[in-house]
């Protein structure tokens, strides 16, 4: 991937290049890398969680990242039939684009991969992109998933490593996610975004230490949009919003000023006309005639 094609000063580009280097080597449970021609679209492969109906399954999909990443969450799209998530459609998770209020900039693509593995055996609860197939149907799809081939990546079963003895810590992370994560429906405030995502579907923050990868179960009150040292970028966004608000406030004032100006001149003309009528009626003074005589006298 040619990094020179992108703005090296962009926080999103810096972050994604670093994460691509960190995830360059596959593991037993997951593997993800950006497309050669697009740093903001990744293909991922995850292994189904152990002791569930998805065990031994290999699931492939896409991660589409916004230009504001990691300040805004990625969108997740599955490509391998699995019975838990719809295919080729953005799915609703607490770590996906449907829930920016619960996303933390300190989370990374690795966080999203582990979270997706943990999400697999949870209930859909009617969330966007979720499916509630029976365990028997999912078992059939699990067996078929190992034969899935991506046009870009090839046979997905060859993308993950064989199991080794040092997978215990990673498995504990996945179990922790599966016991605490839940899917949910987007809030009403996201209705416009849902409509946009629906049209898209029809056409279809890496931490320095492991301990900093907190579980993605934050509430809106706990979420800090200025986390991960991104105060300057977020401040710029706030400034833009304030400027827009000022414009909205100033517009009525401009309209009121114009109305006042028009009313003032209308009153001046009306009063002048009344005075003219009074002088003409009471004293027989014709101001128009006087003005004409005065102008005539000025002419040579």
From TrEMBL:
Record-annotated UBC core domain positions: 11-161
Family annotation (SMART domains): UBCc
InterPro entries with a match to the protein in the record: Ub_conjugating_enzyme, UBC, UBQ-conjugating_enzyme/RWD
Skewed-composition ranges (Polar residues): 177-194
Protein's recorded name: Oidioi.mRNA.OKI2018_I69.PAR.g13144.t1.cds
Organism of derivation: Oikopleura dioica
Swiss-Prot/TrEMBL keywords: Membrane, Transmembrane, Transmembrane helix
CDD domains in the record: UBCc_UBE2J (cd23799)
Residue span of region Disordered: 164-240
TM region(s), chain numbering: 258-276
